[in-house]
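Narrative summary of target 7.
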Amino acid sequence: MKTMNSKLTDGSIGNMLFRLTIPMLLATISMVIFNLVDTYFVGKLGTLQLAALTYTFPVVMVISSLALGLGMGASALISRAIGEGDSHKVQCLTTSSLLLALTLVIILVAIGVSSIEFIFRSLGADNSVLPMIKEYMEIWYGGVIFVIFPMVGNNAIRATGDTKTPSLVMGSAAILNLIFDPILIFGMGPFPALGIRGAALATVIARFTTFIVAIYVLYFREKMITIHHLCLRSILHWWKDIMYIGIPTAGTRMIIPLAVGVITRLLSSFGPNAVAGFGIASRVEFFALVGVASLASVLGPFIGQNLGARKFDRIKTSIRYSNQFSIVSGLAITIVLAFLAKPISLMFNDNPQVVSVSVLYLIIVPFSYTLQGVNMLSVTTLNVFHKPIIATVISMIQMFVLYIPLAYLLSKLWGIKGIFFALAMANILIGILAQYSVKHEFERLKLA
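Modeled conformation, tokenized:
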């Protein structure tokens, strides 16, 4: 079995993190482009359609975060098992995580389809955008298995130290989405114009490719899926281990889109243009943070394998290098967006009110990207340290103690600008707290 040998416990730490991050960077860029393409083409349909797509964002992200959290929980355990050299445990964890993903799909589809109107009215959607939201989400829920399954599978592949395969898969999906979006949204050749439904259908088609490849790699190439020695009792045992890390990790990742949902509701009081502008800026932000997000994705397997091999010096050095990268890249992004916020926003929509909101966000919030990146890296590290509750508490403090209360308060004083200042302040404060927590838990871990 290929995953029997650790790949990340020897060699130059800086070079290894760089080598792992580059393919992951391409993968993350692909997924960001995936979302930006949707935003770009739907934005051409009109402001209401763009607002409708923005309303779907928190719900889609909550579900994706749940799947990704479980995948990261499984990855933390798989990478540690690889570091220990236990191939049977690797197979059991991988197979059980995929079965857990399948169970999750069944539950989410049943709940999601029956609650579309209730959820989006709660987010502030009115009758002008709700029919378009329904059109999008009904198709998206139909293909949710192709969204969730590969997220868990790709995390299992990354746990082996292979970041190239998931990158190629995600890149292919982004290309397919780019091809099918204009064809299905506006209609070309034999294909009718489906509007916002076309964007959802293009997403499902593109995600289907990631589903097929993830299953092929895990079963045939890496042989990480097994049906032997797995009964209901053993599956439940592995589910318990996966969910011990996966549920808090998923909760941590879900907190952000839940908070975004609250902020979307708050912004809806300023009208659809404010919501649409926020939607553009949020997508651009994903692209701006693509480097540190990619590094966070590979930092987990790196720390996990070295933790299994008890190589603490390598772990400490990797954390230091990662934080340095976050600070440097965050400063660079802030400078770039200060000059390019308006031209970038105009690429997606030419409504002056929409653009002004997007520009306001991209001028204010990036000042906090240095410490926002440190927080992202710290949360990943704490999950691999088997301290998912601490990571969840940090995220809850960020969103529900700092961001949302400050947003409500400052919006009364400064309007939309106050909401964005609240986010920047929350990012800075929580980055400091997160880094302190990592240092504290690392010292405790060495003494264990």
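Residues 1-5 have pLDDT under 50 and may be disordered.
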